[in-house]
Amino acid sequence: MNFEExxxxxxxxxxxxxxxxxxxxxxxxxxxxxxxNFGVYITTxxxxxxxxxxxxxxxxxxxxxxxxxxCLAYRIVGxxxxxxxGVEPSGSAFNSLVQLETDNGIPRxxxxxxxxxxxxxxxxxxxxNPKEDFLAFVRSVSNNTDLNYSSKVADSEKxxxxxxxxxxxxxxxxxxxxxxxxxxxxxYFELCSLEMSCKELSEVFLFLANKGRxxxxxxxxxxxxxxxxxxxxxxxxxxxxxxxxxxxxxGLPGKSGVGGGIIAIHPNQYSIAVWSPKLNKKGNSFxxxxxxxxxxxxxxxxxx
Length: 304
Ligand code: DON
Description:
Blueprint: H1 3-15, E1 39-44, E2 49-53, E3 59-60, H2 65-77, H3 98-102, H4 113-126, H5 130-142, H6 151-160, H7 162-173, H8 181-192, E4 195-196, H9 198-204, H10 224-237, H11 243-249, E5 254-256, E6 261-266, E7 270-275, H12 286-299
Antiparallel strand pairs: 1-2, 1-7, 3-4, 5-6, 6-7
Bound molecules: 6-diazenyl-5-OXO-L-norleucine.
């Protein structure tokens, strides 16, 4: 398959379509990023890479980091992790509080904010230096020692993150947060502030297209079964209340972030990252979704 021609053709088409979306501004620092950015990068399991547009510019990966924090917690805790949270799509907005009341503080899945906050709590309980250790894990996954948090973005979210404060305290009231909520939130905001380019993102996530192993040296990040399960969760829960639509139109496991990034995985073949900051009404990148829909249609490389 000639990825380069297909990507070029789709990129040029999507670049010029009318985008009625809006950049996320509820995190003030994200409003400073040009909404005109548009990048895409694919890395295959045989480690061929190709990108276009702003594919080497770093952006705030936000909720995409929730996949990496789940992976580290899953590595440490194993299947017991599911005592603390579920594996069902929520069908609600990423920051909703509603289901927690009837579900006794057990978040539906690890990718809604409630679930990622519980994962943050699990990591704090299990790591000596949570911020440093998580960053070291992310760096080791792609041998990229350059990756970093953005303290500007983390501080900016901390000032306005009242909903996440509410979520964390609400979950704590049910006993499903074990540490001090301010420590949990401090770590959660930090991990959301990770910055990567499309190229770096597709390289970091390649192990999920390779049965849990880093293609470069075959190191195991997750077991085969864990890798399958993380992909299944991305398929069913990666786009919040638009997960069904993404499965329907794109047909790949994936995860979005309010910085406008999307990562999508084809198990056994490739990982592809797209970035365009303007978001649709569900909080997912408008052009990113469109690009991936066309890509799997033209390449006939969805998982279905
Ligand atoms: O907690 C928040 O609201 C952000 N740090 C992350 C949200 C996010 O990326 C949702 N994704 N589309």
